[in-house]
Amino acid sequence: MEIEHMAELMLSGSTEACWSKVISCIEAGRNSLYIYDQLLTPAMRYVGSLWEQNLITVAEEHLASGVCDTLIARYGFMVKPEQGHGRRAMFLCVEDEHHDLGIKMAASLFQEQGFDTRFYGRNLPLEAAMLSAMNWKPEVIGLSASIVYHLPKLKDYVEGLKSLSYRPDIVVGGRLIERYGIQETLGDRALFFPDLLQLNHWLMHYGAAETEVLYQNMG
Predict the structure, then answer these.
(1) Among the three residues 78, 108, 123, which one is the final residue of a domain in this structure?
(2) For the chain, how many structural domains are there in total?
(3) What is the reported pLDDT for 211?
(4) What angle do CA 20, 23, 24 make, to 5 degrees?
(5) Which residues belong to any copy of the B12-binding domain (predicted)?
(6) Distance between CA 110 and CA 114 in Å, rounded?
(7) Can you give the pLDDT at residue 181?
(8) pTM exceeds 0.85 for this model
(9) Is 200 in the same domain as 115?
(10) Which of left, alpha, beta for 187 (phi over 0: left; psi -120 to 50: alpha)?
(11) In a domain, 83, yes or no
């Protein structure tokens, strides 16, 4: 299968061979969502499943992650973002969370849609996140936590960032949403997207929803 082959190439550190697959997708007319959601994410999930079964070493998992990280960055340089519209979005992983590939792809989708983005990456303390948000005031703040033990921290981050006076939209992504139903715990304090497809759908309608509200207020 294509996904398993992609994962094997990542595990062997074959960056150029992996990049050739990305180029093939581009030449076939595939967009960023396809490359992120249908190629890179499934390949890394397959790598993760091998690690969970003790079929690969930690070093091999790190190697595959490094290759994927390189592909995301390399592809990002090729993508021409839409004209900026003044909206801002910041992205980060909760403290002690070191898996940031998914939220990095999410940040790339926002940047492609004209957002001014800041990617803070893994392991950002809540105090630092809140200070950055207060100073920069992004309309959207994306959070990621991939390990169940980090769910209490994720709740603290959502509640802390949602308490900011300017009320940003808090976006939470990852497989934990489907597995543990965290949206039931946090209710309407955040928006939850288990995959990039659903996040992208919301993103594509984000500006349109704001415009509709503006027109309603003017009417």
Answers:
(1) 78
(2) 2
(3) 38
(4) 85
(5) 86-213
(6) 7
(7) 65
(8) yes
(9) yes
(10) left
(11) no
